[in-house]
Structures are given as structure tokens and as C-alpha cells.
Amino acid sequence: MAVTVETLEKLERKMTLTLPVDVIQNEVNTRLKRLARQVKIDGFRPGKVPMNIVAQRYGYSVHYEVMNDKVGEAFSTAANEANLRVAGQPRISEKEGAAEGQMAFDAIFEVYPEVKLPELNTVEIEKVTSDVTDAAIEKTIDILRKQRRTFAQRSLESTVADGDRVTVDFEGKIDGEVSKAAKPTTSSSSSAKARCSKNSKTLCAA
To answer: How much helix, strand and coil, in percent to the nearest 5, is found in the chain?
Structure first.
């Protein structure tokens, strides 16, 4: 089997494979004979179906299977002989202009990149260290506390303290009429300073 390998770009390669037609046809005939002993066709006893009928009904699918198998085997053998580290499955297509009695195929595929490591006994490695102070630990714990804190509703008469969460409902009015641009809305503050009252429709939670 003749094999040529061409570099397309970077990691992509193209391999041209040639296979004798008689090798493929012999394998097709062998599989059809094996199949003829197993298939069941109306009007014939098992194992007595004529080869021409078996070939007519199953020839195309058997030929397709043989082509896939033989080309796949040829590609695997050629890649191993060329010491190619193939990445993924190749894209294989039949090639025109093969010599008489031959079938040619193009296989396009990618290979793994070659990684060359330097001598490790001469490599200098920088060891990075980091000191964790008590202040950094306390700061992180404080952040976690704030992230996981919960709130409970208090009465409307309660005074708002810094750090409380406050929910305020309001209506924006212009000349005594509710403005379309200022529809009833809710806003929250984590550092409210105002006092809650029933008249201001303000709800405090802490």
C-alpha cells in the first residue's frame, strides 16, 4: 500500500491511501457468501438463496461496510508506520484519477502537537508564599456574616439604625396628581437614617 502524507497547516495533515480493487472485491464476495448461509428470503430454503439474489439485495451495503473497514485499517496502519499521533477521527473521501486496478482515498486529520520539555534538573522554580494575617481572617469572617445575615420585621414606630434594611413605598405627585413617570415604587437602603412612621408609609426591617 502506497502512502503519502502532506502538511496542510499547523496541525492538519492529509494522507493519500491506495488500495487494490481486487482486495476489496474479494472481501465483499467472502462476506456475501457468509451472508447467503444466514439470510431468509421468501421462496428459498435457508442457505439455498442464489448468490446473484443475495448480491442484488445486499451487495451495496456489504460493499459499503468493506470499504469503511479496509480504508480504516489502511489508515490506522499507515499512521502507525509514519509515527503520527492522530487527534480525533479523519475525514476520508474517495479520490479521482487512481491507477488502473487501484482505489485512492484522501484522509484529512489533525495530529497532536509535539511538546519538547527542557532538562528538568536545570529548571528554576519560584516558590510563592503568602502570609495570612489575623486581620485578613477577621475581614473575611465579617464579609461572610453580612452575606448570610437574616432580617426580621419590626414595628412601624421603630427607629431605623445604620445597617438596617428599609423598605419604602411612595407615590410621586406633580401639582397634587400622581405622576405617570413616578409610579408607586419600592426602594431599599442598608444605611437608613430616617425614622419610620405610619404617616410616611415606611416599613422598617432589621
So the answer is: 30, 30, 40
Quick: pLDDT tens for 71-86.
Answer: 999 999 988 888 889 9
Q: How far apart are CA 71 and CA 74, in angstroms?
A: 5
pLDDT, one tens digit per residue, over 90-123 is 999 988 888 888 888 899 999 999 888 888 888 8
3-state DSSP assignment of residue 9: strand
Residue entry with cell 447467503: 36
**Phi/psi at 96 (5° precision):** -80, 160
Structural domains of the chain in order of their starting residue, each with its CATH number: 3-111 (3.30.70.1050), 149-205 (no CATH)
Q: Which three cell numbers stand for residue 145?
A: 456574616
C-alpha cell at 127: 516558590
C-alpha closest to that of 96 among 197, 16, 8:
16
Question: pTM of whole model > 0.70?
Answer: no
